[in-house]
Amino acid sequence: MKNDITVILVSSVLPSHPKLDIIEETIASIRHHLPDSEIILQIDGLRKEQIDRKADYDEYKNRILWNCLHKYKNVLPVVFDEHSHQTNMMKATIDLIKTPLMLYVEGDAPLVKDEKIDWEKCIAFIMSGEANTIRFHHEGKIPLEHEGLMLGRKDKFMRTYQWSQRPHLSTVIYYKETVLPTLREKYFIEDTYHGVVMNAWHEYGHLGWAKHRLWIYYPNEKNIKRSYHIDGRAGGLKYTSDDEVGL
User: Fold this and answer.
1) How far apart are CA 43 and CA 35, in angstroms?
2) Residue 68 belongs to a domain with what CATH number?
3) Over pLDDT 90: what percentage of the chain?
4) Is residue 244 in some structural domain?
5) In angstroms, rounded to a whole number, what is the distance separating the alpha carbons of residues 64 and 104?
6) How many folded domains does the chain comprise?
């Protein structure tokens, strides 16, 4: 059932703040698919080099918190006073999830609303033990350069060892016991974990893959796109950790 899913929605300072356009587009896309699921909204703190954005970000937080009280349905905001990044926010909020499944969504990576997602099939596929995680692809087809990362289809799913932080459905126990212990502090989850999954495949083959059981939702050959990217950073720098800034 869809009510077995809690949504983890990630928010941090963006050039567009204090406007709510991007986060509201993402919330609307979630509600299109999962009208009743609880959303845990992780609101990160500011990095020290972003202090010039404090006024705009404080106003953004004021607006989003007001909406959580008066506009949104079943959205729990978790505000971090200090910069914690994806990894530390996930570690801090994992125990708030009371459902067996979680849908992880970055604040500028909505689900599409013009295509269906067979949630019951996805849930059944995970609950059967076939999958730990199902990702919702952001392109209509698997790019040619990524075909070597695919390991064959089963029903409406494509087996892969390519981890991405694009929207994905996963079990809470997998995140708690397997994903979180490997993660670097104050970092993007993907930037640590894609190597973990890839190394498991290269070192142990299908046994390594079986530890992670990672799939892409692949309902047909025509169009598998079920998410998209708004680019909340607006082409700006990708901040990795407190001491490293990369492109």
Assistant:
1) 21
2) 3.90.550.10
3) 91
4) no
5) 19
6) 1
